[in-house]
Write a structure and sequence with these properties.
Blueprint lengths: L19 E9 L3 H12 L4 E4 L26 H13 L10 H14 L4 E2 L4 E7 L2 E7 L4 E9 L5 H5 L4 E2 L5 H4 L22 E3 L2 E6 L28 E4 L5 E2 L13 H8 L9 E4 L3 E4 L21 H24 L5 H8 L3 E2 L20 E2 L7 H4 L8 E5 L3 E3 L3 E5 L2 E5 L2 E3 L4 E4 L13 E2 L8 H7 L2 H20 L9 H10 L14 H8 L3
Parallel strand pairs: 1-2, 1-6, 2-3, 6-22
Antiparallel strand pairs: 4-5, 5-6, 7-15, 8-9, 10-13, 11-14, 12-13, 16-21, 17-20, 18-19
Helix pairs in contact: 1-11, 2-3, 2-11, 7-8, 11-12
């Protein structure tokens, strides 16, 4: 593996020949939201530029998340639906929701080429210049400057909204904040928990021997209570594309900072009789799979990402590399360490990294799965009341329908045993997302739209944060941007009825009607293989 090329951030020397790029719409973040927004802008006749932090486009959709977190199929419309129709054509199928990373990359690249959309890669946001409550330009570390009438933050982190002094929150609100029931500290989840009593100490039964790696140092007194708010966020991992085809398979290499002691807890769990760390192993075309976290100890690097949302680029690079070492190290450990039962070693070693994916980064995914980071606070905050059908919005621009989903936020010790905390999995019916949740308060910024780090509580975001929904919201934001430019008005003052009419013209699904069929409980059971 070429680890020299596997990085999140390398400082960009200032270019003495820096450019000034001026367009109608400037999009920061080549995530699926940013790309659908750009395509829609072109269809509306706007000039647009996409500015991307990394060296790749497509976000998680093109970086291993090939097992689409779909929700209700009928809730997908517009360019999101077009993307999956393109996936089906790629495989010569009538319908296809699962895909290889290179398939997504091919489709997104063809979109950018077809519409001649300029994409500026490896551009690290440095400054945001505002005049009163309006962004005038954004400046990169390279010195390049991007000027626009409307700006859009499509990054997973919300870096643009933060530098534009827009209000946001990081962590889990308390249930009391918005009178929710699934937010804050959450104990007692039925999934992704320890199925056996596992001793947390380096020497079993001896507290003074210290905790095994991967367990929070939180004492019993600081465990908190159900529903209490805190700074913690759900765990990150890589969605790892694997293959079991010997002709296309590369054995798992040892990562540069391999620490086998990080997996002592996993080994102890395996020896207790539980082997489920690679159970969520969703088949993709051409003998590949999308490996995601499953069970008590798996690919989620629990508790090691708290500093990511507000962290410097240098700190994020450290966290990124720690996640590379943890996830790849786990696969190397399971397939090579002689303490692991032979049957498990053979099972894991039957898989490997695909030769035909991620060639520039040693066949390892280039995008860390940022499940949540900053979330804007606007005039309307999406909450579990929306997810549960207890509150409804007057200005819907798209639907979410995946179950309320939070991965664990920490691993603690209670009464001498390991306990995971923070997992939530609650089935829900499709619900509508408010336009007000993707634009800031008017007193903070009048020409910014935020379709990814939108205004939402932690637990509502757990449903909204799926890649098809981001595509939907990116396209809807682009339609709104076009109206703001057309009428020379702020993003807050566009007419919603006109917005809705324009969304219907581009085949967005903005309302869930009674004749649409869905079974949320069955959908969630299928997710967990039940």
């Amino acid at each position: 593996m070429n680890f020299k090329e596997l990085y999140y951030y390398k400082p960009t020397p200032k270019n003495i020949d820096s450019k000034v790029v001026e367009k109608d719409l400037i999009i920061y973040g080549a995530t699926p939201a940013g790309l659908t927004a750009a395509v829609q802008a072109c269809r509306n006749g706007l000039t647009v530029a996409v500015v991307e932090f990394s060296r790749n486009i497509g976000g998680m959709t093109a970086s291993g998340l090939g097992a689409t977190d779909l929700g209700a199929e009928n809730a997908i419309g517009g360019l999101a639906k077009e993307f999956y129709e393109e996936v089906a054509r790629y495989y010569n199928k009538e319908k296809q929701w699962r895909f290889e990373p290179k398939a997504a990359q091919s489709i997104f690249s063809s979109w950018m080429s077809e519409y001649d959309i300029p994409v500026f890669l490896n551009e690290h946001l440095h400054e945001v210049h505002k005049g009163d409550v309006k962004i005038n330009e954004i400046i990169m570390e390279s010195g390049n400057r991007f000027k626009g009438k409307i700006f859009m933050d499509c990054s997973y982190e919300g870096d643009l909204l933060a530098l534009a002094d827009v209000s946001y929150f990081v962590g889990r609100e308390s249930n009391a904040t918005y009178k929710e029931i699934y937010n804050g500290v959450q104990f007692g989840a039925p999934h992704h928990k320890f199925e056996k009593w596992i001793d947390p100490y380096k020497i079993e039964g001896q507290e003074d021997s210290g905790l095994l790696p991967g367990i929070s140092v939180d004492s019993k007194e600081s465990l908190g209570y159900q529903g209490q708010g805190d700074h913690r966020i759900q765990a990150y991992n890589f969605r790892i594309c694997l293959t079991n085809n010997p002709k296309n398979r590369i054995s798992f290499p040892k990562p540069p900072n391999y620490e086998p002691q990080r997996y002592e807890l996993l080994l102890r769990y395996i020896k207790s009789g539980v082997w489920d760390a690679m159970k969520l192993h969703t088949p993709l075309p051409n003998d590949k799979s999308d490996l995601n976290n499953h069970g008590a100890i798996s690919t989620d690097n629990i508790g090691k990402n708290y500093e990511w949302p507000d962290g410097s680029y240098e700190r994020r690079e450290e966290i990124f590399q720690d996640h590379v070492n943890y996830d790849l190290g786990m696969l190397y450990f399971l397939s090579n360490d002689e303490r692991v039962p032979q049957s498990i070693r053979e099972e894991v070693a039957s898989w490997g990294l695909p030769k035909d994916e991620f060639m520039e980064t040693g066949h390892w995914p280039h995008q860390l799965y940022i499940r949540e980071a900053r979330r804007m606070i606007s005039d309307y905050v999406m909450t579990d009341h929306n997810c549960l059908g207890q509150s409804f919005v007057e200005d819907p621009i798209g639907l979410a329908s995946f179950h309320m989903d939070s991965h664990n936020c920490r691993r603690v010790v209670i009464d001498g045993r390991c306990v995971n905390e923070g997992d939530v999995q609650v089935p829900i019916s499709p619900f509508e997302i408010s336009y007000r949740s993707i634009r800031p308060k008017s007193e903070e910024c009048v020409n910014l739209l935020v379709p990814v780090c939108l205004s939402s509580s932690h637990i509502a975001f757990g449903s909204i944060r799926m890649e098809p929904v981001f595509m939907i919201l990116g396209q809807s934001a682009s339609v709104a941007a076009n109206l703001a430019i057309k009428h020379n008005t702020s993003v807050q003052d566009i007419d919603y009825q006109e917005l809705k009419e324009e969304l219907m013209k581009v085949n967005q699904v903005v309302e869930w009607s009674s004749d649409m069929k869905d079974d949320p409980i069955k959908r969630m059971q299928e997710t967990f293989g039940q």
